[in-house]
Amino acid sequence: MEILCLGLSHHTAPIDLREKFAIAESEAPAVATQLLAAPGVSEALVVSTCNRVEFYVAAEQAAQGFAAVNEFLTTRLAEPPGSAFFQLPTAGAIRHLFRVVSGLDSMVLGETEILGQVKKAYAAASAGKTTAKHLNKLFQRAFNVAKDVRTNTNITRGAVSVGSAAVELAEKFGRLSTSHVMILGAGETCELTAGALAARGVRSIFVANRSYDRAAALAEKMKGKAIHFEEWPNEFHNIDILIGSTAAPHHVVTAAQLAPIMRTRQDRPLFCIDLAVPRDIEPAVNNIEGVYLYDIDDLQARADQSMNVRKQELVICEQMIERHAVEFGEWLAGGWTQAGVRYSEAVSGGQS
Amino acid sequence: MDRLLLVIATFCFLFGFAYTMHALGARVYKPSRLNFFAILTGFAGQTGFLYLRGQADGRCPLTSLFEVLIFLSWSMVLFYLLIGSAYRLSLLGAFTSPLAFVIQVAALLLVSDTPMKATRPPNGWLELHAAISVVAYGAFALACVAGTMYLAQERQLKSHNIHSIFYRLPPIRDLAVANNRLIFVGFLLLTVGLGAGFMLGGIFTHSAITAWSVGVWFLYGFILTAEWRHRISPRRVAWLSVAAFSVLLLTLGGLNFIAQKGAL
């Protein structure tokens, strides 16, 4: 039995091409069923996300499997799939799936969202009864491999974007569930960062902007409270995290402003995130006891550092995946006894 | 037999410390049962030692500096076991283990294990005073550990240089709270211990140890009052917590010399 993978991903195709071939989640089981009608194909599964469209099939012969998918794509688009599509025979297909679910093939190395997406695709195919012994075994093994890689390496460790780096740092100051956030300005990065904090369950969010309407719109999105820009110092006593992202050409928050406020709240540290260029928060505030200032370069540096850690882990991850892929290939080729002993070994052991 | 238990306990703390440092260094630290059980086994060894010594001495095993140090280490580990998991400060164990290890190695290698000849028959109030006071010092020891963790974390956050070893340190606000609560608990216990001492009357109130204990009480009382009145920042509380316990530990030797002149 051959297990094959045919598809395209962000490595091989630009977004306009990926869009063209994308298959809606609801459509995937029907597509898989359609592939099963091809001669020699006994199992099929479709994984379609914004970064990849991949067809996994089990067929008696590799040529039959590839032909089935190619024919489907040609019929669907009225043109051949083209060079953006890769075709992986058994060993490559197994290794590829293990890499995909472990986040090694993702746009952001080590991201974990793909695992959920593949699990969903597998659940849909399983419910549609388009998978059987071979693909069931392959995908269940793939989920175990992903768990093994994530647990035993640092491939998912650390924040790799400015927003997630800010959230990760915020957690070093206090529990987010008890933290109050104030946003000055309403820039896009600011919105992303505040959104990431809101998603982690911060206690409350205040939004102050020169345009009150924009503040109100952002506050509504974040389920926070909009305040007039000139009122922000009045609300400041209870704030744990301050995010600056205004378009002001000068410092909006200065050390002279913060120093007296901090004297009245010495037991609560203040984490300042300055995402604005030119900067909103005077760098000297970092010299005030209890105030910790990070600007966009600091956060980017942390994100880069985490990405470097992940890249360093890549070799270990690849070795783990290789080991699992070889084991699975052996199972597929010869089969294993239930006790986990290869049939070939069990047979030879019995004869000797 | 009792010293063997102590040596086993000491190795357990060394193991707990080494294991955590290795896990942190490899950046795969997770609160581990292995580490917790190492500390728990060490605690059992300490408890066994103190029980056997108590049986042999016929009184609370606080008759020498050696025993005081072990009792202090036991108290600190006791507080860790009580609060470490309750406040999700599992990493506190990683910092408690080395301090327990150092105190016990110092006791085993540097301090003479010769129980002091009792000059008086066992006295309930005196033993209560001594035991509770040393348990209070255990709370101060763990506050020192939490303070050290706070300072390490705070320094990294301020300098924007977060080292992988300390990547999993708890939030500084949690560490500040733990530090304050431990100082508060220690202060309460020391108050009870001193109260029990004053019940003794003359044999207690005129000793140099009393002056020393009252000095410690005032020192921690000052830290608490200043903190409550928001006069000092958590960072300064952490510094004071570390400094106060260092002074306490360093003066224990002198205290022992005074004790040999005839207290317990």
Query: How many helices of chain A?
Result: 12
With strands numbered from the N-terminus, the spatial order across the biggest sheet of chain A is 7-6-5-8-9-10
Distance between the first and last residues' Cα of chain B: 25 Å
Overall 3D form of chain A: elongated
Q: Roughly how many Å is the radius of gyration of chain B?
A: 19 Å
| Overall 3D shape of chain B | globular
Major sheet attributes of chain A: 6 strands, parallel
Question: Which assembly state applies to the chains in this document?
Answer: heterodimer
* Class by SSE composition of chain B: mainly alpha
Total beta strand runs of chain B? 0
Estimate the helix proportion of chain A, in percent: 40-55%
Percent of residues in helices of chain B: over 70%
Sheet with the most strands, sense and barrel status of chain B: none
Write the element-wise H/E pattern of chain B from the N-terminal end onward: HHHHHHHHH
Number of strands of chain A: 10
Walk me through what this model shows.
The complex is a heterodimer of chains A (352) and B (264). Chain A is an alpha/beta fold and 352 residues long. In chain A, 48% of the residues lie in helices and 16% in strands. Chain A has a 6-stranded parallel β-sheet with strand order 7-6-5-8-9-10. A 4-stranded antiparallel β-sheet of chain A has the order 2-3-1-4. In chain A, β2 (41-48) and β3 form a beta hairpin. In chain A, α4 runs antiparallel to α11 (296-334), α5 (113-127) packs antiparallel against α6 and α7 (162-170) crosses α11 (296-334). Chain B has one domain (2-112, 122-262). Helix content of chain B is 77%, strand content 0%. Chain B has helices at 2-25, 33-57, 65-83, 92-110, 124-159, 172-198, 202-205, 208-228, 234-260. The longest helix of chain B is centred in the middle third of the chain and has 36 residues, at 124-159. The model of chain B has no long low-confidence stretch (mean pLDDT 80). The chains are: A alpha/beta (352), B mainly alpha (264). Chains A and B meet through α11 of A and α5 and α6 of B.
